[in-house]
Amino acid sequence: MKKLIATILVGSVLSVGVIADDWDDDNPAIFFSEDGADMWLEPQGPNEVSLEECDLGLGAGVVEGAYAQLPRYFEDTGKVMDLEARLVHCMVTLQGRDADEITAHPYSLSGETGTEIEALSTWIAEQSLDMPIQPPQDHDAEKAAYTLGEKLFYYRAGTHDFGCSTCHRQSNTRIRLQELANLTTADGAGAAYGSYPAYRVTQGVVRSMGWRMRDCARQQRLPEMQLGSEASVALQVYMAVNADGAPMTAPTMKR
Amino acid sequence: MAGRMRIRAKMSEEGVVDVKALMRHPMETGQRKDAEGNPIPAHFITEVVAMLGDRELVRAHWGASISQNPTLAFRFTGANEGDQIDFSYVDNKGEKGSGTVKIKAG
After folding, report:
1. Which residue in A2, A12, A16, A107 has the most chain B C-beta atoms within 10 A of its own C-beta, making it the best mutation to test that interface?
2. Helical spans, DSSP H, in chain A
3. Do residue A20 and residue B22 have CB atoms under 8 angstroms apart?
4. Peptide bond into A106 cis (omega under 30)
5. What is the pTM of this model?
6. What is the pLDDT of residue B96?
7. Best interface-test mutation with B: which of A4, A14, A18 has the largest number of B CBs within 10 A?
8. Does B61 fall in a domain?
9. What single-letter DSSP state applies at residue A107?
10. What separation, in Å, do the N-terminal and C-terminal C-alpha atoms of chain A show?
């Protein structure tokens, strides 16, 4: 995977001298979004196929608006899936790649400057910009995911007896100078869920909602949250449903 | 991945050009360590130059304290709509990047 990123990015270096456009933002997420757009079209894996036929919930190849309607139930896997789980699914089924290989290193580590999942998440989420967050709650599995997500949200565990709710069930709170969103309210959940993926200035890369779930679990001293796991997806469903149609603002820039 | 730039140059009614250049660069200080504990070598832009034809608008000397994916922004007068501004930078490894923009009214 690293070699592939190097290849794509070398291509970008050869085309230096980007002509200006009317972009008005200092957000470096735009570079990740551009990379993501390229990666979507790049034939990869043993099948030498791109991700263009990937079904993100609105039909094969439909990217516009897809992120705002995730996570959702997928007939072909029988599971409620978030964007990242769905991307891995497409990489495996369409491109013939190895799931373990992809999920072994999905997010940038210290000193790294972007992974495939991060770039794809940025571009795909951007195609839902300004659209209302509306993950479907029609299928029983989708409703069950919300119930599970709510349960996990309030579940205190680990060495520090720590749950999501410990930080995120009250309004107007902060940790040091970092504001904490109240994820039980539409405003809080909407602002939080809608603003990911986000370029984190302190990390120099775009971080996705899947990463955020993993990092919250890390901060709670809980076992590592796996990409696309039932727990990760359920918590995302909980937030997205609570957002109650708030607009997507991603990719944003955060500290 | 280094070398990419997004540049914007907008001229106000009073003739003040507002320029913003966003550069893709790791700007590694040399002080950090990776996940295995190995030091990550320094890799940062050392000089950025913005030219309007022969006129040097800005020559910035940068170091490790400039953040990753940095933005350089400045304002100047004495140009016309449609004029071209050329950016170039060099980093401590000798790698270069460049970009160009035409001034627009805005």
Report:
1. A16
2. 2-14, 29-41, 83-93, 99-104, 116-126, 140-154, 164-168, 186-194, 209-219, 230-242
3. no
4. no
5. 0.89
6. 94
7. A18
8. yes
9. S
10. 28
The token pair that represents A236 in the structure block:
């995302």
Is the pLDDT at A4 greater than 50? The verdict is no
* The pLDDT value given to residue A112: 87
Question: Does residue B81 lie within any of the structural domains?
Answer: yes
- What confidence category does residue A111 fall into, taking pLDDT thresholds of 50, 70 and 90? confident
Q: How far apart are the first and last CA of chain B?
A: 30
> Bridge partners of B19?
B9, B74
pLDDT band at A23 (very low <50, low <70, confident <90, very high): low
Looking at the structure of chain B, the number of domains it has is 1
Distance from CA of B12 to the nearest CA of A (A): 14
pLDDT band at B18; cut points 50, 70, 90 = very high
B56 assigned to some structural domain: yes
Q: Which of B98, B103, B101 is nearest to B47 (CA)?
A: B98
